[in-house]
Amino acid sequence: MLRTARAWVGSRAVAEEVVQETWLSALRSLDRFEGRSSLKTWLFTILVNAARRQGAREDRSASFSELLAREAEAGEPEPLASRFFDAAHPRWPSCWTTVVAAWDRLPEERLLAGETRATVEAAVESLPAGQHVVFTLREFEGWSAEEVRNALEISDSNQRVLLHRARLKVRAALERYLGEDGEE
Questions:
Q1: Which domains are present in the chain?
Q2: Which among 167, 174, 177 is positioned nearest to 76, based on CA atoms?
Q3: I need a labelling partner for 124 at 20 to 30 A (CA). Which of 46, 162, 163, 165 fits?
Q4: What pTM value is reported for the model?
């Protein structure tokens, strides 16, 4: 919840306040929970709304839906088509054709090292708000695409685009890190 709140607010301390506000709000309104969604989705919807309100108090001028729409339409360059198998590939349709350089040659300790984890965390923290939230919920929290769409009230295609772009950026950060330090 803290990682999700951090996408909208400026500091960890403010994000902690948003999480506390979410729990208090959920406890106060638990008797009104109708079960139309999972408890987790309901709770994260409260969190998202609280984080949005707090973000607005911090003078953020754009709403989350505007940020998501801008990111989806940002016109970021698409990765080279040669980096993906085509949709007709018999074993890995539309999957990456390559692995990150040097991953197969690195000792396990290097992959598990705090330095690599810090690189991933820094890459995730630098993502735009919409990509950050979608990536965090899908990859760290293990949410399904449907749960993310319901909690954030976004379309299926928007969720896919945000997740795809976030994955590309995190992968690029890992490639840069491992490319520089992974050479033998």
A1: 1-61 (1.10.1740.10), 63-184 (1.10.10.10)
A2: 167
A3: 46
A4: 0.57
